[in-house]
Amino acid sequence: MEKTAFINDVAYAFQEGDTILSFVRRHLGTDYVPTLCDAPNLEPFGACRVCSVDVALAAGGPRKVQASCHTPVIPSSYIYTDSQRISKLRKNIIELVLTDHPLDCLTCEVNNNCELQTVAARVGIRKVRYPEGKNHLDRTKDLSHAYMTTDFSKCINCGRCVRACDEVQGQLVLNMAGRGFDAHIVKILKPPCRQ
Amino acid sequence: MSKNLSHLSGRQGLDNNLFEAYAKAAEAEGYPSMEDLEKLRDKFLVGKSSVYGAVSFYDFLRPENRGKKVYVCNGSACLTAGTQQKLKEQLLGQYAEDEIGEMCCLGRCHENNAFHADQVNYSGNDIGNIVEIKKNKLPSGETYHVEALGAGILTAPTGDVAQYYKTMARVLERGEILSEIKTSSLRGRGGAGFPIAFKLEACASQTADTKFIVCNADEGDPGAYSDRYIMEQRPHALILGMLIAGYAAKARYGVVYIRAEYPDSVTIIQNAINEARSLGWIGENIMGSGFSFDFKVIKAQGAYICGEETALLSSIEGQRPEVRVRPPYPVQQGLFNQPTVVNNVETLACLPWIVENGGSAYAAIGTERSKGTKLVSLDGHFNRPGIYEVDMGTPLATVVNELGQGFKHNVKAMHIGGPLGGLVPAHKINELTIDFESFSSNGFLLGHASVVCIPDHFPMIEYIEHLFRFTAHESCGKCFPCRLGSTRGYEMIEQSRHSAYKMDRALLDDLLETMEVGSLCALGGGLPLPIKNALQYFSEELKPYFKA
Ligand SMILES: Cc1cc2nc3c(=O)[nH]c(=O)nc-3n(C[C@H](O)[C@H](O)[C@H](O)COP(=O)(O)O)c2cc1C
Ligand code: SF4
Predict the structure, then answer these.
(1) How far, in Å, CA of B75 to CA of B78, rounded?
(2) B277 and B128 fall within a common domain
(3) CB neighbours of B281 closer than 8 A, spacing ≥ 6?
(4) pTM for the structure as a whole
(5) What CA dihedral angle connects B11, A172, B475 and B98, to 10 degrees?
(6) Distance A70 CA to ligand 1 centre (A)
(7) Has residue B517 been placed in a domain?
């Protein structure tokens, strides 16, 4: 028998090994649930939490917020992708991201081609309410490499570059360093080991 | 978490451990040099960014640790006891400002005034001997009261060591011990209360060459020192408990991951392991049974998040200790990608008694759903601070008034269960009993059952500022709600306390909800509980810090 679960109260069949995110995407499209740290070919990471959804084990049962990218689908569960509290959560997370991000979209070189901008517009962020605090806006651009340029003042710590370097390239050139608010990407461009 | 790094680190085995190599490299200067890191990169065939990224995570491996000679405890109990400032002034007589660092927390919550110098912890009146301590590394004069009310399982002396390990002979004879542990209904004491038998069974059923039992001895909760008590006063209960768990889970190695803030625990546990080994209870083919089990002690390097089990595993592997997503669970893919059971010190230390007296005898103690006994740590605000063992279900009032003999001065709230536990206002003392259900149904958390008191005169705003600062400092930085939210929350409270800024209640509520439901782990997810308790029970006191 085919296993099913409900997305916004409609039943769909899911496959063995499906995460909630892969399940929703197969039936309702890749952009149905917004994400910032997920990427094709990389293991689920669970950092941005923007993909969170509400899940109840039975119709009308108590709901729990789960990050869809790393939570397996439970048979006959009820998944709500856009409940009020999920919309609020996404908006509040993006607001936090914007407290440490330049607000210069119009002059930014990736204006209109930026996932953060798209998600921010989608969740309807109007203004940042937090008082001014620590930030990383003064980091300078690194143009030293032939084709990898970086502007860490705009980095949101999604960790995708670090994971691609490790999981896809097996290089271990990039990593995060420090912890908490100071966590940041480091590049150590040297072969990982002597052959 | 990188599976590649787990694999590369695991190839070297436990004896040649990458994480320990970091600490070794840091011995001379207080942090490892770039050349040291390059050597480790070449030896372990990882990236320089891999080792640099890991090292830069830890308080005691960072360049900021350079030249530190003495560390003042900045834990919650020393904070509310108000001993830190004076202690620091006294230390300044002997040390330069930049030689004084901070540690959180030394587990001397019963007598406060705690500091660490040259691998020794001090507290209480020790500071009076600072000149001698600096010169001759005196031992600490620490003492604390220990008492059991009820069954007294963990505080009972383990007695003659050779005799004590006979329990293991009975395990080997029976050949099956899991059912006994199941019957006991023992639940994890590290905070989450998960039944240990499930994990042992799941691990046993996995096919893998090498499985691990990892003892979480990172006891990071400021205010808690009950795991320290077990390690230092009842070390064989833990070692034997791990042997039993190893046998039940079909594991080959036991790793004890002990925080660096407890130097005595590290030594005592290592000595106990040596003793058990010399008696033939550790090693290959133990007593001719075909069961082989070995131990490894690992000393941590200063990061609260390493108490979270998946971060702990990455730490042992020499990776950045960032919290991992689940699944896979550690019993499926844990240390070095192998099936692993992680349990708290106190949980594991219960196993010898369960084997010896039977699971049903254990299950006869306690409440319907919380079985056995629980250690409670009382801080220096009590007339008789110390470690108390009570049967689950014992009224909190009994612990406070009879065992602790009441408070030294008026206390408005008790912070129970660590930094992520609830703030219990004094008027609720009579409503709670020491068990998981009583606390959770009243909107609090039993956690590891540490009790830190907040006296009447201690400002609540300062306490919640401390909690946010702690979380911001200890956040692993992986998930957005906690990495950003803990710092923004700290800034809001700090600014409202020290400037004309007033907090917007709706914004603070939004922040707390975002952290609570959005965070990946219970650090970011747990902080909102005590903050919400403070806002609920101390709203009048906190009012001036908010916009009207
Ligand atoms: C932020 C954080 C800190 C933790 N610190 C500890 C700790 O210091 N000691 C501990 O045993 N468990 C700690 N835990 C719980 C562990 O993740 C894990 O649940 C526990 O070690 C499992 O053992 P138990 O079932 O015996 O309690 C912590 C969890 C979190 C989220
Ligand atoms: S809640 Fe904090 S500590 Fe836990 S994973 Fe997120 S950033 Fe790390």
Answers:
(1) 6
(2) no
(3) B165, B168, B240, B243, B287
(4) 0.97
(5) 90
(6) 21
(7) yes
Domain total in chain B: 4
From the CA of B305, give the closest atom in ligand 2.
3
Domain of residue B309 covers 155-363
Q: What pLDDT is attached to residue B30? A: 87
Last residue within a domain, chosen from B108, B143, B178: B143
This model of the complex carries an ipTM of: 0.96
Q: Identify whether residues B170 and B296 lie together within a single domain.
A: yes
Which among B226, B419, B217, B441 is positioned nearest to B312, based on CA atoms?
Answer: B217
- pLDDT, one tens digit per residue, over B302-333 is 999 999 999 999 999 999 999 999 999 999 99
Here the CATH number for the domain that contains residue B386 is: 3.10.20.600
- Give the pLDDT confidence score for residue A189 in this predicted structure: 63
User: What CATH number should be reported for the domain whose range is A1-133?
Assistant: 3.10.20.740
Beta strands in B320-433 (DSSP E): 340-344, 373-378, 386-391, 411-416, 423-425
Contact B501 A131 (CB under 8 A): yes
* pLDDT per residue as tens digits for the range B457-491: 999 999 999 999 999 999 999 999 999 999 999 99
Nearest ligand to the C-alpha of residue A48? 2
B216-272 pLDDT tens trace: 999 999 999 999 999 999 999 999 999 999 999 999 999 999 999 999 999 999 999
Q: Are A171 and B47 in contact (CB under 8 A)?
A: yes
